[in-house]
UniProtKB/TrEMBL annotation:
<keyword id="KW-0662">Pyridine nucleotide biosynthesis</keyword>
<keyword id="KW-0067">ATP-binding</keyword>
<keyword id="KW-0547">Nucleotide-binding</keyword>
<dbReference type="GO" id="GO:0005524">
    <property type="term" value="F:ATP binding"/>
</dbReference>
<dbReference type="GO" id="GO:0009435">
    <property type="term" value="P:NAD+ biosynthetic process"/>
</dbReference>
<dbReference type="GO" id="GO:0000309">
    <property type="term" value="F:nicotinamide-nucleotide adenylyltransferase activity"/>
</dbReference>
<comment type="pathway">
    <text>Cofactor biosynthesis; NAD(+) biosynthesis.</text>
</comment>
<dbReference type="InterPro" id="IPR014729">
    <property type="entry name" value="Rossmann-like_a/b/a_fold"/>
</dbReference>
<dbReference type="InterPro" id="IPR005248">
    <property type="entry name" value="NadD/NMNAT"/>
</dbReference>
<dbReference type="GO" id="GO:0016887">
    <property type="term" value="F:ATP hydrolysis activity"/>
</dbReference>
<dbReference type="GO" id="GO:0005737">
    <property type="term" value="C:cytoplasm"/>
</dbReference>
<dbReference type="GO" id="GO:0005634">
    <property type="term" value="C:nucleus"/>
</dbReference>
<protein>
    <recommendedName>
        <fullName>Nicotinamide-nucleotide adenylyltransferase</fullName>
    </recommendedName>
</protein>
<keyword id="KW-0808">Transferase</keyword>
<keyword id="KW-0520">NAD</keyword>
<keyword id="KW-0548">Nucleotidyltransferase</keyword>
Length: 296
């Protein structure tokens, strides 16, 4: 797998941040992505949907929990048999509803480089693309990504299959997806919950974006988790949201734990939470410390 050109990645990042492009791909595994690498589509295949997983995160840094979620097979839903996704994309959101860059954080270019290193450790690295989007909401991301993929596919095949997106999330991100405060005109908007369900109907409905969410369970439950699952009960019962286990150890890993350990110069505990390539990258750039090498 090739490395990322920092000059090219910076230009594409600027294009997205300035609103000139809704989505940009920093890396694609092959020219036909998200279609098969070399095998042409047969007529039967052009009639089915193209199952694409979207690992959407701030990747600050990517951890083994991200990798376990990315490697998880597509769950069996309804009458559909699960298995592998047709293609995968690791998507960096350069605008987050909650998070802003801190002085010791990895730059976006550094995160993209670590995302590529994570993809190299993926079970299906040959099908993983790396992309960026400047959109804080999942409803907005789904709409932009679908339009982008449909346009890309139209240039790759005469009768391309329809892309269907499955967003891979941790439970903390699911909590934001199902939080009414992100959908109202203000934090005190009395119609926020109604607006949330209207937006999520567009996101999940087969007549609109037709997206799904696969969410990793946490190591331990909490009252916040219970409230989140209660709010999303209708989507869980319809299997538009599916909960999975990614491993007893991995479900307790977090990017915050890595950053905190590095911040207090605990050079031992964080290394078990990331893949070898990411571990070497963090050490070399001295990320998340006052001596960090920032890449713009």
């Amino acid at each position: 797998m090739s490395s990322i050109s920092r000059a090219s990645a910076t230009a594409l990042l600027n294009s997205v941040q300035r609103g000139l492009s809704p989505v940009e791909l920093i890396h694609v595994p092959h020219a036909n992505w998200p279609l098969p690498r070399s095998r042409p589509l047969v007529p039967r295949e052009t009639q089915r949907s193209l199952q694409i997983s979207v690992l959407d995160s701030s990747f600050n840094p990517p951890t083994l929990a991200h990798l376990a979620l990315a490697n998880a097979p597509r769950p069996s839903i309804g009458g559909e048999v699960g298995g592998e996704y047709d293609a995968k994309i690791y998507l960096l959101s350069v605008r987050n509803a909650d998070k802003t860059l801190k002085p010791t954080d990895a730059s976006y270019i550094q995160r993209l480089e670590m995302m590529l290193l994570l993809a190299q450790d993926s079970k299906s690295s040959a099908e993983v693309a790396i992309g960026i989007v400047d959109e804080p909401t999942f409803v907005g991301k789904a709409s932009k990504l679908l339009a982008f993929l449909q346009q890309r596919l139209s240039g790759l095949a005469l009768a391309p299959p329809r892309p269907e997106l499955t967003f891979l999330l941790g439970l903390d991100t699911l909590e934001r997806l199902l939080a009414p405060r992100y959908y109202g005109a203000s934090p005190s908007d009395p119609d926020a919950e109604t607006k949330m369900f209207a937006s999520l109907h567009q996101f999940f409905s087969p007549e609109h974006d037709n997206a799904r969410v696969v969410c990793a369970r946490r190591a331990s439950s909490s009252s916040t988790e219970a409230a989140t699952l209660k709010l999303g009960e209708r989507f869980l019962s319809d299997e538009r949201i599916v909960l999975i286990d990614i491993g007893e150890a991995e479900q307790s890993y977090s990017s915050t734990a890595v950053r905190d350990a590095l911040g207090r110069r605990d050079d031992h505990s964080w290394k078990a939470l990331v893949s070898p390539g990411v571990r070497e990258y963090i050490s070399k750039a001295m990320l998340y410390t006052e001596s960090a090498t920032m890449v713009e």
